[in-house]
Amino acid sequence: MDIALYQGGASAVEGVADVVKLSSNENPFGPSPRASDAFRQSAGELHVYPSTQHERLREAIGEVYDMAPEQIICGVGSDEIISFLCYAYAGPGDEVLHTEHGFAMYRISALAAGATPVSVHEADRVTDVDALLAGCTDKTRLVFIANPNNPTGTMIPDAEIERLADGLPENCLLVLDGAYAEYVEGYDAGVSIINTRDNVFMTRTFSKIYGLGGLRIGWGYGPQDIIDTLNRLRGPFNLSGPALKAAHAAVRDVGYTARCRAENAKWRAWLAAELDKIGVPSDPAFGNFILARFSSEAEAQGCDAYLKSKGLIVRMVGSYNLPHCLRITIGDERACRRVAAAITEFKRQG
Ligand SMILES: *Cc1c(COP(=O)(O)O)cnc(C)c1O
Fold it and tell me: What is the pTM of this model?
């Protein structure tokens, strides 16, 4: 009962039609049409048990991301990989580090494994490597950072990740959560860092740029001994056949992924600039959302309520210790224009 229940993004407003959900960082365009087709085609095979080793999906991921397929493990969302890591490497008496405004699942999974989550200070909403290194003790087993981070949207350069990996005590694993890595043009999410070390692991997801949050698919990549360990915790049929088929088609449609990345970058920059003009700043954002800062908690709450009344659902992030901020997913052009117009009107009304 010490675990605070995860709060998902809201999706409906009573009495308001034309609602846009911008609270869960979903892809406004949905998955690649090829992924939807693959899912529909799998309807005729629902009586067949799925693959246990996920070879086809791991090979496709390996090809697209230049990863060795045998060093990949697929899970029910990256959430499942995060929980495998905690169950495998942290238990009672062990500490699991996460950043001050880090993703809620690190803390939840650490507690579920009986370990002690430790929150480490960030420098103005940016991961602080010195603080993380200083936060390590001989009890630290796992250090989770998301790069780009959610809900801040900020990221740190590879050189900083390397400094963190190389400065960690022995018997401590660095986990890079790359849920938003595809939104960063040309970013390998730390693959080359992992390939030259034995203490760095990565989690990835099909829930964000691939638009398959509803199917629950993610993966982990890292040193072989860690993959071999996590596979012992994994249920043999953790991923359904339709999910595997859809993910396979999605990851191979690299053209679609590139178009989603470009569209997101364009409207993210536009929305951030529009809000900045009216006194609502945000940090340079690297994912598919921005963290809009208001002058007070009351103003953020007022704006959230105003947006809701206009059918625009964004995310309050008080539970992430950012009560004066709203996290806004980058929707399509129409959604971004609606958000900018509504916040402008809210500010004008004072
Ligand atoms: C959305 C998100 C995930 C994805 O979780 P899934 O279980 O793969 O849907 C992971 N990490 C972070 C930081 C996220 O924001």
Answer: 0.96
